Amino acid sequence: MKKTYTLVYAAMFAAVVAALGLVPPIPVPGSPVPITAQTLGVMLAGGLLGARLGGLSLLVFIGLIISGAPVLSGMRGGIDELVGPSAGYILSWPIAALVIGYLVEKSWANLKFWKVLLFNILGGIIVVYAAGIPVTAFVLDLSLPAAALSAIAYIPGDMVKAIIAAFVVVKMKKRNPVLTTNKKNLAA
């Protein structure tokens, strides 16, 4: 039973992130890395599934990318996406979900909107940018400050996604606590 729940949750959130890829990417002037809705799925995976399953769901998603499935925004997929300018951002997603999930798990008994928002900013923005900016700089042969400056365009959208994800996680905890249910099923 334990493995079944693990696989179902991991596959479900890989599918959620893929579905968010259907939202057309927004090009950023001067950058080949578009604004996408998919980091919302990363934040939700960590917040709703916890560290282990949230991280696993994004590893499944990366496996889909490697297999060539067009699951990235703009119907992109394939190993080339993991060596291009977006690679650092994409490859950081399992770590981001793990960080968010870990922090949510530690605060589960006293979970508040502002805490989840803070966790989303830390894991879903800071961790993602910490990996994405240096890789973009390397791939495009830019200085780190130039790559960081271009990333400023992503902050408003990522803040909106962090707010939405925090709202959803707190509401889901009250109505259908996936993490609590998950812990009970995994203990069986």
UniProtKB/TrEMBL annotation:
> Which Pfam families does the protein's record reference?
BioY (PF02632)
Q: Which InterPro entries match?
A: BioY
Query: Chief localization class?
Result: membrane
Gene3D superfamilies the record matches? 1.10.1760.20
- Keyword Ligase attributed: no
The way it spans or sits in the membrane comes to: Multi-pass membrane protein
Entry keyword Membrane: yes
Source organism, top-level taxon: Bacteria
Subcellular compartments: Cell membrane
Q: Which UniProt keywords apply?
A: Cell membrane, Membrane, Transmembrane, Transmembrane helix, Transport
Task: Spell out where the chain crosses the membrane.
Answer: 7-26, 32-51, 58-75, 87-104, 116-140, 146-170
The family assignment reads: Belongs to the BioY family.
The protein, known as: Biotin transporter
Q: Which organism is it from?
A: Pseudalkalibacillus berkeleyi
